[in-house]
Amino acid sequence: MSVNQKILVVDDEHDIVDLISYNLTKEGYQVYQAHNGKEGIEMAKQVNPDLIILDVMMPEMDGIEACRLMRSMPEFKHTFMVFLTARSEEYSEIAGFNVGADDYIAKPIKPRALMSRINAILRRNSAETEISNGDKLEIMDLVIDRDSFLVYRDTDKITLAKKEFELLYLLASKPNKVFTREQILKAIWEDSVVVTNRTIDVHIRKLREKIGENYVATVKGVGYKFELN
């Protein structure tokens, strides 16, 4: 973790913001605060944070809308976004991932668990940098070679169909990031009108049969991710 990493905390509950800020500051992060979605966007533009923690339910502009707007801005395309909320409804979590959230943390806040999650998310930057080598990804015990469309697990060569390979490459390019079904369809099948969610499920099943069950995880109701153990 770098002391230069900046985190913006956006929540209308001042006690929550103070608690999170205190624990983040102890870890060496530079911490900034805002108390509604509009204020959060303006503060983000000023400080360009590495990670933004957003409450879902806020006055003026909620976290879902604030995230959606920031994801449409080039400067925040790769900024980590984490939702913080007391709501436990599955649709709220799905809505968060659909607008580009990287993770989802429920209240009440448990400082140790929160810090573990935040540190893990920010370490993803290092992981993504380390696995990239031109058109080749090296991750866990896999080497995914885009030039040859081949996958190597240790010394074993695994041959995948083109779409299976592209799906694996997409997920592995951002380990632990949840890709929604809509994002996968757009990235792999673009605007094909004949492709359905079932198509994704079939390709995931075939992919697991060929490379093993321990790499691609299902996030219920949302999509899939490459699980970095």
UniProtKB/TrEMBL annotation:
PTM sites of type 4-aspartylphosphate: 55
Domain Response regulatory as annotated: residue spans: 6-122
Domain OmpR/PhoB-type: 134-228
Keywords for this protein: DNA-binding, Phosphoprotein, Two-component regulatory system
InterPro entries: CheY-like_superfamily, OmpR/PhoB-type_DNA-bd, Sig_transdc_resp-reg_C-effctor, Sig_transdc_resp-reg_receiver, WalR-like, WH-like_DNA-bd_sf
DNA-binding region: 134-228
PANTHER family in the record: PHOSPHATE REGULON TRANSCRIPTIONAL REGULATORY PROTEIN PHOB, REGULATOR OF RPOS
Protein name: Response regulator transcription factor
Source species of the chain: Sphingobacterium suaedae
